[in-house]
Design brief:
By secondary structure, the protein is an alpha/beta fold. The protein is 38% helix and 24% strand. It folds into two domains: 83 residues, Nucleotidyltransferase, domain 5 (2-Layer Sandwich), CATH 3.30.420; 119 residues, ATPase, nucleotide binding domain (Nucleotidyltransferase, domain 5). The chain has seven helices and ten strands.
Length: 251
């Protein structure tokens, strides 16, 4: 069994693979102050009913959590081969970026998974703490992309800065023209971000000069996939699949 661990700014997602089959996943909140021992308690609790992993693949955008993860695996899973996506790890993804060290490991992993599953060119729209647009060439190269504030960040900022506005549940309102403040906020957030995504995809497509396949992933992708016009496929586990592929390349 392979354990994959995707550490994002908002959530840590664990995936369990039997061969190429993802048969279980778990999601816990990210705490940048968490310790290795606390992580071990959470991991052991979640994995208690599962077979012991014979391999681990990790990517992290939170350096403090990654350091504690390394300590946890060294102490509690010392006999399990572990691959941490970073410099020196084989991914097979050429980074056509001015400074490749600036590219987050999650974006590299998503590029590999997208090209493996669907070929290229492709655009991966990752709905997380930020909304990432990752562009993949026909050869599987990471060409670059765009980063925008995520939906939940915008919800929090609006509630904090506007005295008469408040946080709302992210779901589709009855209509685009909201009849209550709650529905007006839901409409502006949901359809406003959908317009941003569709506009960015069209601009990227124009620069590419050919029609890419467009994938949605990330925590809010199930909701956004229903309202965006330019998304072709929904792959909620794209990063976990990419981690499996990286592990296979390095094991």
């Amino acid at each position: 069994m392979l354990l994959t661990v995707d550490v994002g700014n908002t959530n840590i997602v664990l995936g369990l693979f039997d061969g190429d089959h993802l048969f279980e996943s778990y999601r816990i909140k990210t705490d940048p102050r968490v310790t290795a021992d606390e992580l071990a308690l959470m991991f052991r609790g979640l994995l208690a009913a599962q077979p012991a992993p014979d391999g681990v693949a990790v990517c992290s955008t939170v350096p403090s959590v990654l350091e504690e993860l390394r300590r946890m695996f060294d102490r509690y899973f010392s006999d399990v081969p572990t691959v941490v996506v970073g410099p020196g790890v084989k991914t097979g993804v050429p980074l056509l970026y001015d400074n490749p060290r600036e590219v987050g490991p999650d974006r590299v992993v998503n590029t590999l998974a997208a090209h493996t599953l669907y070929g290229g060119p492709a655009i991966v729209v990752d709905f997380g703490t930020s909304t990432n647009f990752d562009v993949v060439s026909a050869k599987g190269e990471f060409l670059g992309g765009a980063l925008a504030p995520g939906i939940e960040i915008s919800v929090d900022a609006l509630a904090a800065r506007a005295a008469r506005l408040f946080k709302v549940e992210l779901k589709r309102p009855r209509s685009v023209i909201g009849k209550t403040t709650n529905e007006a906020l839901q409409s502006g957030l949901l359809y406003g971000f959908a317009g941003q995504v569709d506009g960015m995809v069209r601009r990227i497509t124009e620069e590419l000069g050919e029609r890419p396949v467009v994938l949605a992933t990330g925590g809010l992708s199930p909701l956004m996939f229903t309202v965006c016009e330019t998304l072709d496929h929904h792959e909620p586990d794209l990063t976990l699949i990419g981690l499996r592929l990286v592990y296979e390349r390095n094991s």
